[in-house]
């Protein structure tokens, strides 16, 4: 870097302001999570029928979830690719690239022909897999960059608070994605929604990507990474260096995030599936016949009951629950700053373990019970997700921080989120329609997170902007 470039970086006018950091870190993750949730919602509501029209209802749903999981397989690769450039070239350019990748992939999903189109029975699902892989690749690099943008610009003693800025993108993106689906379902007939209405949320992502790019292109490099450049400590091969010098934080970070991932994808994808599944066999038969796919004898034998809510009813309930997710994400920052990341998360994770045993009684207590379960689950989600924006980056030295935090975050996505909906559906069926095994699964994963938290050290007071590997 030339001396003039360094001077520009040091110019006080070029320092990222608090408002710019908040908007850039928040809008990016909002767009990324919006894109991701648009697919997650479509995977339950329309993709089984559009991309797997010849399969029975359960097989089509599981196939849709399998493609949903492809993105999580891609995310660790994305963490390596984007982490490499984030630790070698800088945070700003890498964040722009991840946003573009996600936005283009999501837009193209909205343009895909479905398997109902003659000649596209194989190619439509295959192209959906490719686009889903690109989404995962992008998200593999997005979160860590946004978290570093916030925390590496944070004032002393405010990292956990500033680290909640990108975390808010998750609930906001969820509300936007599902709110649009809900609006479309009210404004369009079922046939219109199935035919073309489902494409609109994917195509609208282009507008938000343009806004996100505008904000991010105005950023300057973070002070912490600029210091690495000035000291000549930029890693030539960040992924090799992080595995050599920080393998223990990689493992701990992966399992620290495990309960968070399992909880979130059970509270969204699984509950939507369970909540909107017919409560009686007669209702299931009527729903299948209305879709033009009468249940076979095997499908009848394999059928398990759900809660019987309409799609719109349950989406409204989910959106209400996610509001608590957003509120308690903000609450978690000051708590993690005051009491420490480790202690705060130990208490929250203990709450998640207990929450797993509430699945059956609350799901069986009518609408009030279901709503209580959603509020409690999303409250715990906010409290566990919020501190991660500071905790995971704090586990790693500055010159491998992008790569290290990204790998931990996304390896956890495979162990937690990628398989969570699939395992939950299998456990739901194994228990003949009861969510009891799903709750036990959540509690078991939370125990692994609790063990990791008990092993790790507190990271609140470390020298965040000076340490290198």
Automatic annotation (TrEMBL):
<keyword id="KW-1003">Cell membrane</keyword>
<feature type="transmembrane region" description="Helical">
    <location>
        <begin position="437"/>
        <end position="456"/>
    </location>
</feature>
<feature type="transmembrane region" description="Helical">
    <location>
        <begin position="161"/>
        <end position="184"/>
    </location>
</feature>
<protein>
    <submittedName>
        <fullName>Metabolite-proton symporter</fullName>
    </submittedName>
</protein>
<feature type="transmembrane region" description="Helical">
    <location>
        <begin position="21"/>
        <end position="51"/>
    </location>
</feature>
<feature type="transmembrane region" description="Helical">
    <location>
        <begin position="345"/>
        <end position="364"/>
    </location>
</feature>
<keyword id="KW-0812">Transmembrane</keyword>
<keyword id="KW-0813">Transport</keyword>
<feature type="transmembrane region" description="Helical">
    <location>
        <begin position="95"/>
        <end position="116"/>
    </location>
</feature>
<dbReference type="InterPro" id="IPR020846">
    <property type="entry name" value="MFS_dom"/>
</dbReference>
<feature type="transmembrane region" description="Helical">
    <location>
        <begin position="250"/>
        <end position="268"/>
    </location>
</feature>
<feature type="transmembrane region" description="Helical">
    <location>
        <begin position="370"/>
        <end position="392"/>
    </location>
</feature>
<feature type="transmembrane region" description="Helical">
    <location>
        <begin position="314"/>
        <end position="333"/>
    </location>
</feature>
<feature type="transmembrane region" description="Helical">
    <location>
        <begin position="122"/>
        <end position="140"/>
    </location>
</feature>
<feature type="domain" description="Major facilitator superfamily (MFS) profile">
    <location>
        <begin position="21"/>
        <end position="460"/>
    </location>
</feature>
<dbReference type="InterPro" id="IPR005829">
    <property type="entry name" value="Sugar_transporter_CS"/>
</dbReference>
<feature type="transmembrane region" description="Helical">
    <location>
        <begin position="413"/>
        <end position="431"/>
    </location>
</feature>
<dbReference type="InterPro" id="IPR005828">
    <property type="entry name" value="MFS_sugar_transport-like"/>
</dbReference>
<keyword id="KW-0472">Membrane</keyword>
<keyword id="KW-1133">Transmembrane helix</keyword>
<feature type="transmembrane region" description="Helical">
    <location>
        <begin position="196"/>
        <end position="217"/>
    </location>
</feature>
<dbReference type="InterPro" id="IPR036259">
    <property type="entry name" value="MFS_trans_sf"/>
</dbReference>
<dbReference type="Pfam" id="PF00083">
    <property type="entry name" value="Sugar_tr"/>
</dbReference>
<feature type="transmembrane region" description="Helical">
    <location>
        <begin position="57"/>
        <end position="74"/>
    </location>
</feature>
